[in-house]
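hey
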């Protein structure tokens, strides 16, 4: 069962959670959900709102879903799901029914899709999207190293609607 917590009550370290544990980003288009693994992102405050920022390359199928939807979710999973997270991050939903292959079960909260197997779910309302531009890199090495294909990420800032922790109760 999911229990709503306040952003201030989030006990996990954001750097470990996003960078090491990884997350799935999930959104829905025409009644179907797609999700992808992400290990780059952030949480913070802007415009007096508590927000999540995710970075999505243009070739991701999930991008079409996020662009179409008003909301998206990010999810964190127990370590036992590492294999599924690797798969969700190497195969495209264009080529396979990834959700079925992982035996994830799609449910909705705040009118936003998530997977029942997640230990933490954060629902977000899209506020802002912007494609990164090569001319904006102050450190040109960062551009050179990360974008040899010039496939610049689009960043999405989402206002946190709710944070939900899975409880066994
Ligand atoms: C650990 C890990 C982290 C990733 N982080 C990101 C990310 O932050 N942004 C991104 O665009 N792709 C990231 N990817 C790549 C996508 O998850 C991958 O291309 C995925 O297959 C896209 O699926 P889709 O085409 O169904 O959207 C990551 C992959 C892995 C394995």
């Amino acid at each position: 069962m999911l229990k709503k917590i306040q952003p201030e009550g989030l006990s996990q370290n954001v750097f470990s959670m996003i960078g090491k544990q990884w997350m799935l980003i999930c959104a829905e288009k025409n009644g179907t959900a797609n999700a992808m693994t992400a290990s780059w992102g952030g949480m913070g405050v802007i415009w007096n709102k508590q927000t999540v920022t995710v970075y999505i390359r243009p070739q991701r199928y999930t991008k079409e879903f996020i662009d179409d939807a008003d909301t998206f979710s990010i999810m964190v999973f127990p370590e036992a799901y590492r294999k599924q997270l690797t798969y969700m991050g190497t195969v495209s939903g264009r080529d396979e029914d990834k959700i079925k292959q992982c035996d994830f079960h799609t449910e909705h909260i705040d009118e936003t899709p998530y997977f029942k197997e997640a230990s933490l779910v954060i629902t977000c309302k899209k506020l802002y999207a912007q494609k990164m531009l090569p001319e904006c890199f102050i450190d040109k090495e960062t551009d050179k190293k990360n974008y040899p294909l010039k496939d610049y990420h689009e960043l999405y800032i989402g206002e946190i609607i709710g944070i939900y922790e899975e409880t066994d109760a």
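The first helix runs from residue 14 to 21. The chain has one domain: 2-166.
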